[in-house]
Amino acid sequence: MSVPEDIVREVRIEAPPHEVFPFFTDPAKMIVWKAVEATLDPRPGGVFRINVTGRDVARGEYVEIEPPHRVVFTFGWESEGSPEPPGSTTVEITLVPDGEGTLLRLVHSGVPDEVRAGSTEGWDHYLARLVVAAEGGDPSLDPWVSAASTANDERSA
């Protein structure tokens, strides 16, 4: 069995690392760019649980916390039968000072091939929202939350 290829993304954010770091550890900041609810205990072994869309819940635990430069957590989906169950993959975020800003490097390892495209699309979507939020802007309502709410409404009708 081959090891899945890592998903690697880099973005530049016009804010220093100490302003970007809390977007991965502070529930109030997490819900600005990536979740509708967040339970975060940013210490090794602490819970990482986010309700991303009102329907899709990701869960894992923090592995490493090195403010304001690095955070590593496990990740997976609570949905029954997910090929990526809670804690089954690892997300490593590195924040490197870059002039007045930050170069953020994300490495998501262990993502199964059958969900790789969706995970890649998800990180592209949410990292763009993070850039806006961390630079002091308003990423506005996540359109994926609206889509999930509509899908839930249709199922319960």
Topology:
Blueprint: E1 7-13, H1 17-20, H2 27-33, E2 37-40, E3 47-51, E4 57-66, E5 70-75, E6 89-98, E7 101-109, H3 113-134, H4 143-156
Antiparallel strand pairs: 1-7, 2-3, 3-4, 4-5, 5-6, 6-7
Describe the structure.
- This protein is α+β, with helices and mostly antiparallel strands and 157 residues long.
- The chain has a single domain (7-156), classed as START domain (Alpha-D-Glucose-1,6-Bisphosphate, Chain A, domain 4), CATH 3.30.530.20.
- The protein has four helices and seven strands; from the N terminus they run E-H-H-E-E-E-E-E-E-H-H.
- It has helices spanning 17-20, 27-33, 113-134, 143-156; strands at residues 7-13, 37-40, 47-51, 57-66, 70-75, 89-98, 101-109.
- Strands 1-7-6-5-4-3-2 form a seven-stranded antiparallel sheet.
Characteristic key phrases:
157 residues; Alpha-D-Glucose-1,6-Bisphosphate, Chain A, domain 4; seven-stranded antiparallel β-sheet; 30% helix; disordered C terminus
Helices and strands: which structural class? alpha+beta
Whole-number count of domains: 1
- Residue share in helices? 25-40%
- The named CATH superfamily: START domain
Number of strands: 7
The top-level CATH class is Alpha Beta
| Residue runs with pLDDT of under 50 for 5 or more positions | 153-157
Overall mean confidence score, pLDDT: 93
